């Protein structure tokens, strides 16, 4: 844990006191988003101290020219970057001739930020003493509307406390922004037109290369003591910016305020020539409702989200705050309305990882969305990969594969590979397996088989073909081997026979073969269409089977464990506990070669396999592998602790499970990895949800039935969660003494709790 | 073989006919140098076609800010670059108002270039038709003086053939030059002062960051039909350039010419405030001698070099031309006068590899310099590494090693690591072994033990310490292993137990232990000094020995060969002969992962070990390993064919040996690797020399005695070479029927030829 300034609170993230050192961290932690757009918690008024400015529009990206030291064949030319979008939140505030700036004013007191997760808004208030000794009180409230997802709203209030003030509010739009992570200092935006109409302003701009057209817009009104001031503002129009200036004078104790609506319209949703008129419509709707009505709708919308997805924890405020922060951020990032969108590792909170799609979505996020949303959302995420199948086939061709083999990219925005580190781009091929696993997992959970004949089977065939071609026969071992890979544990590169990868490869082929048979029998027309399109033959399927049936898995007879890879036992097996503290995190302290030859595991790797394929191993086997690998795991990936938490819970090692839970749920709030300034770890937040539901709750789906093995950490009085299982909503409440189940709707649900079959009837509490 | 335009000739490199496509290749092939400076064969007059401009000064470099895609701990901040130095060769030629430019003139005929290797000069002649139909004949001769190594000379003659001509010769200096390989478009030179005195001009400039001060200078005279024209030129002084303009008018058939002396004085050799006066002295000496006398001295100087280092081949002009080109280029690059200099892989012929020092020097170049120069030259190259020992210890510390362990850099200009690809920078640690081996090899060849107590032992201790710490104990194998390395075969990365590396590591430790004992006994004062400085203890030496005695070597019982690395036999062992031609070179056709998991070997790796430690293996073992690995070797490194040529000769596989010889000796002339535009492969040229002397000649040193096992390819009538063995010069002449030995000097020399001891007496031909 590296920071401890967030106030514990059940529903809000609260910061008290102003510290310039914390500004960038708080900009990440207090980020807001509505699925269509999002932004870091940058101040509206001028701030000349260190800050990381970021506003992001879902699906709008830029292919930045790749930068590498030494080019390797096959590297992509471009790395997609999430774009820092034109700023619409800016409001410069001049008071008696002085720019309000928390970096330069005489003093700041009573500084308080609150991210109210229950209601979906961000507030900030403070008292500042200006150079001329004027004290002012400022209160700002901001939200991005879930209802009108092109619109955000700000209410900015200034009250002079000890004298009169002439206040100039200068709301502005600015498209002269840049990305911090630009590789070659290129401009990413081309401003096309800056225009105004009455008190509305518009900047039309398009992204370079990708040509996404956007209109950034705003409309403002000023008030004195809640009375709207009819005032024609001065307009200042620049090449890449536009501002209005309103001047109001108030006495001590009186409040001058400005309400600003703003946001983006994008040609992903509108004709590119209609963006200004779409913006006008959005502003019209918002201003007709007014700030307060829009805020009320926001509260209602969030209330509905929480109704389904909340997890309560009694008796442990930090744990409660942690899980809600995770659930809140996931919902801010992705709401599943658009199958061309996906979930970037940082969501709308930073530039890192380019806002692109990783295997995180399939391995971590889909279970969360399946259980807390309509199943269409998960289907939408699956369809995203189906839409990219052709690109995945092209990607595999670039690397020498043939005949429709598909290798999904490690990092992508539009289906093309973006990443350029050979050991990851070309070798971290396990990602392909997670995409197949998600199809299996979706059907297991939802029972919706239709996806497989409609789309999934083609994906499974492309992936199986890849694995069959990627495995090679070792005459020495008389088995198929997979050489030169990087597993989920990226602290090993170019290794042979990574257990997780080999196991997943075999599973993918077996599962594809099984589904081909099943579709052939049950959906014959689909089968004929797919067989015609993919040109699968008996001979080909036979070669698949030969690979799957003869796959090699490294195993230690001595330790009775599968080895993470060939040669793992040649390492110096010193546990993490015996590593000097000064050496950690090793990714900051050690050179890369030292990390590679060490036994230290960045994130669950063999254990990730045991997590995915739990049913195929006994609990004794799990225990043996957990006890073998956990001591070498440094969890320097955000995706690691949740898997270990789930497995520790299953093994009834509750102390460990709880420690891992805290680490995953408060990773960003407590800044475990010293990097929260860069943004939040959005995708791993779904892992936190899994730690509770699958870990402590012990929820599984087996044979179309929900299973539970509830446990509770000794630190908690009780916890509860809800899941949507095949359109039936089940609420589970676990306390130290009992577990209760409640069902919504009209139909009974049979579930299994520990070893007992239990029938839950609607509106009838079952206690166990 | 990818090009075939160089005319076969015993002593010269000749190009006939002008082809714009070949300009950059020829600029490399016709490069000239004198050990202190060198330059590509850029035209003196303006050339607006594609060209790669390069003039280089030995030891003057720039630490260019590193560019990487993904930063790893331990990467160096800077990559040293050889600097394109200010241009002194430029002479713009305006004829009747038109700039002479072979890219734009109406036609070019009779174009001919000759690099006369016997005499050390470059000439160029052509007939050009200008826009106004004037035909002119141009003859240019240029050389960089071996005697006055700060000075180069140009004689540039223009003869109008069909009309009169007013010719403006504009000799110039230009410091506004850039490197093609700059990472961030930085300027590398800061021009300090531009000045003239009479017909001399000077540009003082210093390199950014490194602050090398240089003075680039010139002095010119013009002639009509060999009569000097007393003419005050016009001077044009710019910020980064200076030119003189001379105007002469000549009739058809008359010759106008300009002689230009130019070059560099550098603060590596002079006080930085005295560079202009040093330049004046150099110009004074050169112009007092005059162009022709300086050229005669050049011929004499090269004659002396050839006297010692020539290799003759009868009956195979291309083979003869190849070996002389290699010997010529090596001597142009490095003459061994300065122990702060070393041999860059491209010498003075291009920017690639930054002009820095690699293990090439120790593994390939030292044998050539030992046998063809005074032994001080090789000692100087050894001392270069001794001077960098402190930096090598710092480098090891950065990677987590302790207690004086030394890891020499992969690439360096000043002892600091420059390279930034983790799989090479941090893992290609075998380079450390080559540095120790060179110490052994130097003593074996020269018998000069003094280097070891004076300097070498400290280097050996640092290196042994590194290997002891780098090896780790595998309880699984009950042996010491070396994990995570890249061997000489860079088509494998992050492998375990590379045979070559492990063998070298063990050898280094054993050899260091042996030398410590030997110095302790024979040079006790040195021993005490070194023991005090390095703080070696009995306990430490014991830990070294434990590692050396228990080193693991991967071995296949089935094939009876050492394996290149753990798991080599798991690969799909398809030989190069069975690879489709379209797939080669694989480094241009395949993605990196595909190369890595293939069995293909970029350059001799296990066989490199058999080359270094030949005495430790039987010929049967060599044959087994050669037959096992050769079929998988693609020789995509210039350093590979020579080793295979030597071993094929030893195994009496002369067809193979000859093929490899041609490949190594004509690598650049025939542009096997399609990259000669970038510069020449200087360091591998020493390998070509070894192919003849050690390969065909079978020369070895055993027990202080030269051994020979002469063989001759069937394509040759005879070949001869000379070696300087411990200040005795032996000439060896091998024909299809006999081998003769001739000795210079006064003392007999006992040599071993095949299995017979032979005494060679001075000036008395011995026939065998």
From TrEMBL, chains A, B:
**Could you say which residues form the signal peptide?**
none
Residues of the Glycoside hydrolase family 65 central catalytic domain: 324-690
Positions of the Glycoside hydrolase family 65 C-terminal domain? 699-760
For whether the record's keyword set contains Transcription regulation, the answer is no
Q: Which SUPFAM superfamilies does the record associate with it?
A: Galactose mutarotase-like, Six-hairpin glycosidases
Could you list this entry's UniProt keywords, alphabetically sorted: Hydrolase
List, for all copies, the residue spans of the domain called Glycoside hydrolase family 65 N-terminal: 14-267
InterPro entries documented for this protein: 6-hairpin_glycosidase_sf, 6hp_glycosidase-like_sf, Gal_mutarotase_sf_dom, GH65_N, Glyco_hydro_65_C, Glyco_hydro_65_M, Glyco_hydro_65_N, Malt_Pase/Glycosyl_Hdrlase
What is this protein identified as? Glycoside hydrolase family 65 protein
């Amino acid at each position: 844990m590296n920071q401890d300034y967030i106030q514990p609170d059940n529903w809000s993230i609260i910061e008290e006191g102003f510290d310039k050192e914390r500004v960038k961290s708080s900009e990440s932690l207090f980020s807001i988003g509505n699925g269509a757009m999002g932004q870091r918690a940058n101040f509206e008024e001028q701030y000349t101290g260190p800050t990381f400015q970021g506003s992001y529009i879902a699906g709008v990206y830029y292919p930045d020219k790749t930068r590498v030291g030494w080019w390797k064949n096959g590297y992509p030319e471009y790395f997609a970057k999430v774009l820092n979008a034109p700023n619409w939140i800016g409001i410069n505030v001049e008071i008696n001739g002085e720019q309000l700036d928390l970096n330069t004013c005489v003093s700041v007191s009573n500084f308080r930020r609150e991210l109210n997760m229950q209601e979906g808004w961000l507030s900030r208030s403070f008292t500042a003493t200006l150079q001329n000794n004027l004290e002012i009180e400022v209160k700002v409230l901001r939200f991005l509307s879930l209802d009108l997802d092109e619109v955000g709203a700000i209410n900015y209030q200034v009250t002079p406390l000890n004298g009169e003030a002439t206040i100039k509010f200068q709301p502005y739009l600015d498209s002269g922004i840049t990305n911090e992570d630009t590789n070659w200092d290129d401009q990413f935006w081309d401003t096309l037109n800056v225009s105004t109409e009455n008190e509305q302003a518009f900047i039309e701009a398009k992204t370079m290369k990708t040509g996404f057209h956007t209109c950034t817009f705003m409309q403002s009104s000023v008030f004195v003591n809640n009375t709207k001031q009819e005032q024609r503002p001065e307009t200042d129009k620049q090449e890449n910016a536009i501002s209005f200036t309103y001047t109001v004078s108030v006495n001590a104790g009186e409040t001058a305020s400005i309400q600003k609506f703003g946001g983006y319209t994008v040609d992903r949703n509108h004709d590119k020539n209609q963006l200004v008129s779409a913006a006008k419509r959005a502003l019209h709707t918002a201003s007709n409702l007014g700030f307060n009505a829009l805020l009320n709708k926001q509260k209602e919308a969030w209330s509905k989200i929480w109704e389904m997805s909340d997890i309560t924890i009694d008796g442990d405020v930090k744990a409660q705050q942690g899980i809600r922060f995770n659930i809140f951020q996931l919902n801010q990032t992705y709401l599943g309305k658009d199958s061309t969108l996906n979930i970037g590792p940082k969501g709308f909170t930073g530039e890192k990882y380019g806002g692109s799609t990783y295997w995180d979505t399939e391995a971590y996020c889909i279970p969360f969305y399946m259980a807390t949303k309509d199943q269409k959302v998960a289907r939408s995420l699956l369809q995203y990969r189906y839409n990219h199948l052709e690109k995945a086939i092209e990607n595999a061709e670039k690397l020498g594969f043939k005949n429709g083999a598909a290798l999904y990219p490690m990092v992508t925005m539009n289906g093309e590979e973006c990443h350029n580190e050979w050991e990851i781009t070309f070798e971290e091929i396990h990602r392909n397996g997670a995409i197949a696993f998600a199809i299996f997992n979706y059907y297991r959970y939802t029972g919706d088989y239709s996806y497989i004949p409609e789309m999934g089977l083609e994906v499974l065939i492309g992936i199986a073909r890849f694995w069959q071609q990627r495995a090679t026969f070792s005459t020495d071992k008389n088995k198929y081997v997979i050489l030169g890979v990087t597993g989920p544990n990226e602290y090993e590169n170019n290794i042979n026979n990574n257990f997780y990868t080999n196991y997943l490869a075999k599973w993918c082929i077996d599962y594809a073969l099984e589904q081909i048979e099943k579709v052939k029998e049950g959906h014959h027309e689909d089968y004929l269409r797919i067989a015609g399109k993919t040109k699968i033959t008996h001979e080909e399927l036979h070669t698949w089977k030969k690979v799957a049936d003869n796959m090699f898995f490294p195993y230690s007879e001595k330790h009775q464990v599968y080895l993470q890879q060939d040669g793992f036992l040649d390492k110096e097996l010193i546990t993490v506990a015996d590593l000097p503290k000064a050496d950690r995190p090793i990714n900051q302290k050690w050179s890369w070669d030292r990390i590679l030859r060490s036994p230290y595991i960045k994130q669950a790797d063999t254990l990730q396999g045991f997590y995915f394929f739990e049913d195929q191993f006994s609990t004794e086997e799990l225990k043996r592998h957990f006890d073998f690998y956990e001591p070498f795991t440094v969890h320097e990936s955000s995706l690691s602790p949740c898997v270990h938490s789930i497995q520790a819970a299953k093994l009834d090692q509750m102390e460990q499970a709880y420690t891992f839970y805290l680490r995953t749920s408060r990773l960003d709030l407590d800044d475990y990895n010293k990097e929260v300034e860069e943004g939040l770890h959005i995708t791993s937040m779904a892992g936190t949800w899994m730690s509770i539901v699958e870990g402590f709750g012990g929820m599984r789906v087996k044979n179309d039935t929900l299973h539970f093995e509830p446990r509770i950490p000794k630190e908690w009085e009780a916890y509860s969660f809800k899941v949507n299982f095949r359109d039936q909503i089940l609420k589970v409440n676990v306390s130290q003494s009992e577990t209760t189940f409640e069902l919504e709707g009209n139909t009974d649900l049979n579930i299994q709790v520990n070893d007992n079959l239990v029938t839950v009837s609607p509106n009838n509490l079952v206690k166990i």
